[in-house]
Amino acid sequence: MQGLSAWRDDRCLYCDVDLSLPTGTVMQIRGPNGAGKTTLLKHIAGLSGRRAGQVSWASTDSHDDRDTFTQQMLYLGHLPGVKSALTVAENLQALAACRGINLLTHTISQALNTVHLGGYDDMPCHQLSAGQLRRVALARLFTEPVPLWLLDEPFTAIDQAGVRELEGWLAAHSEQGGVVLLTTHHPLALNCPLQFLDLQPIVEDWH
C-alpha cells in the first residue's frame, strides 16, 4: 500500500502513508480522534470518499481486480452492522450472500458457538444486547474465512472475558498466516508480535 492520502472536505486527514502487511502481521493503527484511523481502514477496504494511493494484495492492484481483493478481506466497522429486524442466522446468511457464500446451518451454529451465542440462531437481533450484537458481527470472522481482517474498534461492548478471547482469535489468525489491521483504544495483550502505525492530525498553516 503506497501513497495513501484522504481528505475530509478540503482538509487532508493523512498524506502519503506507505504500509506493508506481510503474512502473519497484526498491526494497530493509533492516533487521537480525528487523525483518520477509521478513514484509513475504509480507504483500504475501498469504502472511503476522496482518496488517493495504491492498495495492492498479492502484488495485484485492488483497482485492477476489485472482486478478487474484496473476496480476500473482511471489514468490520465500529458499529455491528446487523439488521435488527432479522434473526442472527438471517443476518449472517445475508452478509455472506453478498460475498457469494451460501452458508450451511452447521457453519452458522459452529460460528455462534465460538462467539458464545450458541442457540441464538433464530433470535431477532432487536432483542439482543449491545455486547451480543457485537458478537454477531464477530461471528463473521468464522463464517467468512479470509486472510485480511480490517477491524474498527472490535472490542466495543465486549466484556473482559470476551476481550481476552478476541485477543486470542487475533493471535491465532496471524499464526495461521492471516493479517489483521485494527483500530482500538483497548491496550492489547497478544501472544504474537504487534506492530503499530501512528497517525497524527495534519495541522494546516493558515498564515
UniProtKB/TrEMBL annotation:
Q: Which UniProt keywords apply?
A: ATP-binding, Cytochrome c-type biogenesis, Membrane, Nucleotide-binding, Translocase, Transport
**InterPro entries named in the record:** AAA+_ATPase, ABC_transporter-like_ATP-bd, ABC_transporter-like_CS, ABC_transptr_haem_export_CcmA, P-loop_NTPase
Under SMART domains, the record lists: AAA
Give all residue intervals belonging to the ABC transporter domain.
1-202
Instruction: Please name one Pfam family that this protein belongs to.
Output: ABC_tran
Recorded hits in SUPFAM superfamilies, A to Z, give: P-loop containing nucleoside triphosphate hydrolases
Coiled-coil annotated residue ranges, if any: none
Q: Does ATP-binding show up as a keyword for this record?
A: yes
Q: Which PANTHER family match?
A: ABC TRANSPORTER I FAMILY MEMBER 1
Indicate what this protein is called per its UniProt record.
Cytochrome c biogenesis heme-transporting ATPase CcmA
> What species is this protein from?
Paraperlucidibaca wandonensis
User: Per UniProt, what is the name of the gene that codes for the protein in this document?
Assistant: ccmA
